[in-house]
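User: Second chain of the day. Same drill as before.
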Amino acid sequence: MVDVKAVRDIFNYIIALCLFVAAAIVLCVSSVTTIYYDMGSDVDWPQYGKENLPLLIIFVAVVIGVFYFLFKKGIFEQKCKVLSISALILISAYCMLLILGIKPQAVNDSKTLDDIINQFVDGDYSSLTNAGGYLFIWPFQLGYVAFGQMMVGIFGKSNYFAWDMVQLLSILVTVYLIYKLTWEFFEDKEICGIVSLLSCGALFFYNYVTYIYGDILSMAPQTLALYMMALYVKRGLKQYGIISAVSIAVAILIKTNCEITLIALLLILLFGTIDNKKIVQNLAIAAIMLILVFGAKAAVNSYFCNLTGLDKIPAGSPSWSHIAMGLQESDLEDGWYNGYNYKVFGENGFDSEATAIAAKENIMATLKDFANRPLHGAKFFVRKFATQWADSVCISTHNLDLVSRHVENQPAICHYLVFASPYGSPVLIWIMNVFMPVCYIGVIIYLSGILKGRKVSVPEMLLLVLIFGGMVFHEFWEGSSRYIMRYYIYYLPFGAYGLKVLLGFIRKHVKG
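Assistant: Same format as last time:
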């Protein structure tokens, strides 16, 4: 007879061990190197320099000292709610400073999609119906386009201020729900107070309020899906599971990367059926979740077929082309976007099946080369991991440059926040450089506790499985630290837990 509890404990241990090793790598790499982006560059090309380690250590020590002072005075426990409200106000103020000071514009894919949304409103569907059109190649963006049509219907065409405000709302909802998740995980006011203060340093996430795309817009429904699943696991009420299902379906429509979260949600439901009395209910919610996700996609496709007169939505460039590109060495950065998925689709006459065959052949050739040169292959994957996860700014400084460089008569605050140096504002960059080691120190302490035998709850494992899934997925998919920020932000509760352990350790030895 299989010991289900033992199997689950082994699974939890393996996930924690993998995340511990990954977090240690990130902490080490981000402590000795710094990643920056040249102002004026049109491509995502991370540059590497030597970190000022003595200064970093001093700043990290000062920040932890501030945390210790507040911890010793009991502020985190006594003023938990005040800290959370204050943090949300501070985050709102910072985001509004960016929105009003930079006056960001849509750029790159977001500009292309903005133009397409406006074209659709005017009855021009050529980007979807013509071979080689943007949506013909990337039809997974149709959910975002449908959302954009609603935005146009409410706020008018290219109303970037309205888009930014909706994104600000998504950020605030996300951070608030992270506070709520922290309570559900640990039911500890001190940890909740710490996570509130810790969240103020996550500027990489808030900088994206200016980047009009699906990344930030999808975070609120995705985090709501996670929070509702945590409530469902703890309380067993089916309405929480159903809200989670609806929320993840909305998130996936806006950003297909949220499918990794869907997998995490389904895994938690599956594990819950093993020794849970509500087996039928868990399986029913899992089925509802899948029906809603695929049903929502089908509904959007049907809507656009009726709108354009197409019999079916084009298959687009296959996923295999993204994986092939994610395994390629590049003149810019290994495994990051180099245009291969677009190029190979065109070379194969925009035929999805032929492109898939070509991409698979490319993948096999790459893997064969890695097998023949295992050290080279290992170096590739370690470098790709580090370039994504150890980027403390998550390309946000580069994107601030992109969205603001073409705006005329920029105020002085914009120049200070974006163009204060060849790589961006030193103040913002240093805040993010310090935030990463502070957060990851806490994460490592948290994970080490699990490895030493601390039992981890199912709601905690929901986020840990999601983060692990993101790591694995983006080792093979198109690489970018912009994609990683959606997982990085979910480390906050665990970083806060670890920091409480650290602060308690310091207090014990200071008293001794």
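Residues 1-106+168-202+391-472+479-512 form one domain.

User: Great, on to the next one.
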